[in-house]
Amino acid sequence: xxxxxxxxxxxxxxxxxxxxxxxxxxxxxxxxxxxxxxxxxxxxxxxxxxxxxxxxxxxxxxxxxxxxxxxxxxxxxxxxxxxxxxxxxxxxxxxxxxxxxxxxxxxxxxxxxxxxxxxxxxxxxxxxxxxxxxxxxxxxxxxxxxxxxxxxxxxxxxxxxxxxxxxxxxxxxxxxxxxxxxxxxxxxxxxxxxxxxxxxxxxxxxxxxxxxxxxxxxxxxxxxxxxxxxxxxxxxxxxxxxxxxxxxxxxxxxxxxxxxxxxxxxxxxxxxxxxxxxxxxxxxxxxxxxxxxxxxxxxxxxxxxxxxxxxxxxxxxxxxxxxxxxxxxxxxxxxxxxxxxxxxxxxxxxxxxx
Length: 354
Prior knowledge:
With 354 residues, this protein is α+β, with helices and mostly antiparallel strands. The protein is 46% helix and 15% strand. It has helices spanning 3-10, 47-61, 82-90, 96-99, 136-151, 185-189, 193-202, 234-263, 265-280, 286-301, 311-319, 322-329, 335-351; strands spanning 25-34, 73-76, 106-109, 115-119, 125-132, 158-159, 163-164, 176-183, 205-208, 221-226. Helix 10 (286-301) packs antiparallel against helix 11. It starts with a helix and ends with a helix.
């Protein structure tokens, strides 16, 4: 398989679309936690009940379509190889927790991979919807429509006073987690990010790495999301998050202007050294690759690097992950072999733009 064909098959179609404020916000995500009424939650360990939930989702929704979300396919964890599960994690279609499930876990994924419904993770359903760029309100509207479609055939666990009932108390109420993935290299370079994160946390929001809770911010990618789900409407939660994200966007843009003015040739040197590393390395580890990709993306956004699309960061941050490398190589790779293969893949990808 050629690299171009692999990219076409591997990258979610929605990732190749540029959204609002895409120089800083890579994606917006809405996730809704829902449970079947009078069915034990997944955390109870009642496997018979969970199997029935899985069978129902397969019977009712496999190969079905809803508006823009065509041909949902139910993917069972038990049918996947470990590397295939990891690929879905790297594409953010499932969580690491779901990947560890056996015969009770599955994901209902739309053809364009914009919608992914995790089945029997922490809750019976985790409805996820992604949009490129800063599109939280649009993502919420579509997620609510999708939620209504499921609710036509599923009676949810719901309490008039507490709202939607969930396995984790922090999700009770709306069951909503709204988040944005942001590229914040200038705030990191100026060390402002270290002061900004605690301030954001004080507002009831949380800042995590690229793969959510417990992950680090590789490539200066940060995920900002709400923590509170009870006591506010879904719309109010999203508006509060949007307000904070807009301030972060403005701070990042000011920081970019400052480093352009103050660092000048040193900034250009850093960016082009990173580009040179990606274009010429014969071996490169994931952390170094993420750092260099971040620098190159910044160079593209600042107009210093031309003729390379912004979406290249989205692509290569996925393509250079361990599972994707092995999927492309079609064999298991040792850590050193992955570093060599990663360097080869990056060089080949950059050649496609020439």
